[in-house]
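Bench notes, afternoon.
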Amino acid sequence: MERHIIYIKHTRIAELSVIGYVREQTNSVKCEKTRMMTEKKISKATADEQIKHLYETAFPEGEQIPWDDLIRLIGEMPLDFTAYYECDDFIGFTIVYPRKAFNWYWYFAVREELRGKGYGQQILTQLIEHYKGQTCVLDMESPTQVSENIDQRKRRHDFYLRNGFRDTNVYRTYNDITMTIMMMGKGTFTMQDWDDITNELKQFWWPDDIKEE
């Protein structure tokens, strides 16, 4: 009798294992077919090592807010920090600073090995849809400044032009790097607007070694 009970238990465990495997494979196939991208809002508690690694490798050090300060800002500023996943695989993240006059697209990054595969386009499309009807701006390295990464700058500039952003012809140079503003939506962007948003940021954080030229 004891052997039969043990056999039945083992059989049941085997059945459950098979059912679990089939479900996992079904979900995997379903995900592979749809390539559905999901979003997850990031807080101080959920900012993990994957996101930190991408943040610290995707942007030049001079354009980064130190990670610990950035995490602090999540709790102090109304930042829209979103991570993107395909099934359970981390794809990239965006950080937007929502404002009444315009939303500032602050950071946008996709894992290096996934770039050029349409993920950046998919994320930006979702982001534009989320802020549909609102004015949005972003700052980027100027594609007109002579630099070692001029080709990369031009590709980024063309990418945003294709997605409905336009040049504002507003430029500012920090530590020998010339930045420019692109925008989408109604209105214009002036140097005063840049001063306003910079002064807002200075209430929370500002590097000691940054030099405006």
